[in-house]
């Protein structure tokens, strides 16, 4: 063995994976984890992790970066600012969106977002393909080609006037996803209910931000989940339901999974730590807590924690959607907007992992029964790597990318607007105190964050090519020996 076999050895920490924790050194050669074990040989550089946790870097699989919103507004972050913020929060991979709008060519959209990310990203990234213009070229030509090139997931919206797709194009996209082995991710809320409620609330003068929550009826989520799952079952296509916010929504998912349907789901810190009462602030201040779906009730938080522990919901993402509280963002419609004129979305890249760590590891949410650390790693890194086809990410094991976050489990931090590194200018979690903080973050062996400073240049993050295929294959109902004219007509397509 050469005297200096490794570039870096992270020594003496507690390594945690989704399945266990153990005292071990982690050796890195080049961009890759070379060895995990006790008493490893020397590294050219040694990082002392005594008393620390050595965890896989977080994967935030739902982030809106440098993106034009449903309402046509460019959000506040660049790939540089967003991935800086993500890295300070312990993440080493983000999946953001190549967001088509009506009339736009999907291939050009992907080229444009790719150029922005290639210039700015500090950590590795991939894209979900948002389809808002489901014409023949998009469905039959661009989607198959782009999926084949390594963009293995699509996103649709069932609500928002300017980008929603109705049931027929939803089926078109489900079928294309199935034929090309892509995952379909969906923002599922009943558009008619939200639109109807919004118009009537505003007409009666109920215009303050808190009415945003009331305008998204709880049932609009369960209804849309049921419709989506029914459509996906017709095509036998695996789906990911984004940002689950209600107990009823989680119950719909539990039932579908119990029937063997290939339904994945995510929730976000805003549904685990905030409620609709957070929107009830003087004047327009509540706009900072406005996102879709809205935060709900304390009892929904409890139901979502249970769903995470039961495995009904497999991932926790930030749904980072950064709009400043000024005329460039939340107040872009003027100084006195109705809630219908305020951009939806919260920043969250930097606080997702600390909030989850504090709840699951430091405070030890009881649902996880002493396995909070492993569950934290799974929900925030390992499961997203598996669901979104990132085979070199999401765990600490020889041969994988050296994407590592070293956590100080004792560090106590009070979150504030000033400490955030994104460009939103506020965090809806300001004032909360968390225990546990990522103090050193390596991406492919590079010090992205060390000693409180950024150690890599913008543009050094890499696009991650993702092959098609699903973490859970379709049920096989359409290929089984079933009568296509009875209930499985999609077999004939
Ligand atoms: O309010 C949110 N979540 N805004 C971002 C876009 C979306 O709906 O995911
Ligand atoms: Zn959404
Ligand atoms: Zn989103």
Descriptive report:
There is one protein chain. The chain has 12 helices and 17 strands. It has 493 residues and is of the alpha/beta class. It is globular, with a radius of gyration of 22 Å. The chain has a domain at 58-381: Metal-dependent hydrolases (TIM Barrel, Alpha-Beta Barrel), CATH 3.20.20. The protein is 30% helix and 21% strand. The structure holds N-(aminocarbonyl)-beta-alanine and zinc ion (2 copies). N-(aminocarbonyl)-beta-alanine (URP) binds next to loops.
Overall structural class, as computed from helix and strand content, comes to alpha/beta
Instruction: Sketch the major β-sheet.
Output: 9 strands, mixed
What small ligands are held by the chains? Answer: N-(aminocarbonyl)-beta-alanine, zinc ion
Q: H/E element string?
A: EEEEEEHEHEHEHEHHHEHEHHEHHEEEE
Helix and strand topology:
Elements: E1 6-16, E2 21-29, E3 32-37, E4 43-48, E5 53-56, E6 58-60, H1 79-88, E7 91-99, H2 106-120, E8 124-130, H3 136-148, E9 153-157, H4 167-180, E10 183-187, H5 191-203, H6 210-215, H7 218-235, E11 239-241, H8 247-258, E12 263-267, H9 269-273, H10 298-310, E13 315-316, H11 352-362, H12 372-387, E14 404-414, E15 433-443, E16 446-450, E17 453-454
Parallel strand pairs: 1-4, 1-5, 6-7, 7-8, 8-9, 9-10, 10-11, 11-12, 12-13
Antiparallel strand pairs: 1-2, 2-3, 5-14, 14-15, 15-16, 16-17
Helix pairs in contact: 1-2, 3-4, 4-7, 7-8, 8-10, 11-12
Bound molecules: N-(aminocarbonyl)-beta-alanine and zinc ion (2 copies).
The site of one zinc ion has 3 residues, from loops.
């Amino acid at each position: 063995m050469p005297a200096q076999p490794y570039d870096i050895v992270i020594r003496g920490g507690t390594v945690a994976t989704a399945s266990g924790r153990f005292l071990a050194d982690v050796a890195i050669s080049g961009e890759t984890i070379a060895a995990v074990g006790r008493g490893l040989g020397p590294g050219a550089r040694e990082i002392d992790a005594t008393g620390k946790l050595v965890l896989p870097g977080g994967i935030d699989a739902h982030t809106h970066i440098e993106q034009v919103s449903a309402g046509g507004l460019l959000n506040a972050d660049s790939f540089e600012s967003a991935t800086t913020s993500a890295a300070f929060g312990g993440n080493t991979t983000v999946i953001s969106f190549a967001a088509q709008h009506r009339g736009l060519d999907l291939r050009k959209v992907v080229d444009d977002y790719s150029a922005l990310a290639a210039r700015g990203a500090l950590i590795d990234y991939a894209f979900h393909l948002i389809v808002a213009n489901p014409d023949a070229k998009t469905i039959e030509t661009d989607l198959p080609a782009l999926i084949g090139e390594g963009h293995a997931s699509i996103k649709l919206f069932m609500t928002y006037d300017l980008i929603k797709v109705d049931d027929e194009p939803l089926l078109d996209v489900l079928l294309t996803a199935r034929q090309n082995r892509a995952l379909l991710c969906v923002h599922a809320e009943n558009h008619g209910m939200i639109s109807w409620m919004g118009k009537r609330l505003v007409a009666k003068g109920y215009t303050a931000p808190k009415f945003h929550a009331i305008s998204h009826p709880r049932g609009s989520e369960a209804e849309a989940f049921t419709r989506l799952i029914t459509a996906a079952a017709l095509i036998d296509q695996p789906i990911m339901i984004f940002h689950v916010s209600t107990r009823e929504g989680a119950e719909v998912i539990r039932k579908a999974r119990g029937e063997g349907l290939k339904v994945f789901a995510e929730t976000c810190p805003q549904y685990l730590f905030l409620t609709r009462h957070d929107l009830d602030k003087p004047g327009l201040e509540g706009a900072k807590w406005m996102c879709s779906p809205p935060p709900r009730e304390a009892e929904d938080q409890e139901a979502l924690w249970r769903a995470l522990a039961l495995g009904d919901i497999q991932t926790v993402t930030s749904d980072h959607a950064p709009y400043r509280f000024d005329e460039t963002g939340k107040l872009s419609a003027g100084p006195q907007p109705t809630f219908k004129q305020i951009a939806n979305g919260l920043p969250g890249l930097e606080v997702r992992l600390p909030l989850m760590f504090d709840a699951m590891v430091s405070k030890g949410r009881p649902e996880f029964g002493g396995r909070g650390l492993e569950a934290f790693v799974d929900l925030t890194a390992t499961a997203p790597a598996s669901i979104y086809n990132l085979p070199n990410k999401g765990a600490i094991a020889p041969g994988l990318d050296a994407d590592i976050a070293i956590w100080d489990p004792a560090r106590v931090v009070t979150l504030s607007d000033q400490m955030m590194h994104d460009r939103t200018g506020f965090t809806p979690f300001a004032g909360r105190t968390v225990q546990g903080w990522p103090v050193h973050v390596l991406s492919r062996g590079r010090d992205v964050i060390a000693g409180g400073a950024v150690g890599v240049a913008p543009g050094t993050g890499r696009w991650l090519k993702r092959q098609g295929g699903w973490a859970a294959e379709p049920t096989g109902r359409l290929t089984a020996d079933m009568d296509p004219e009875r209930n499985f007509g999609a077999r004939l397509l």
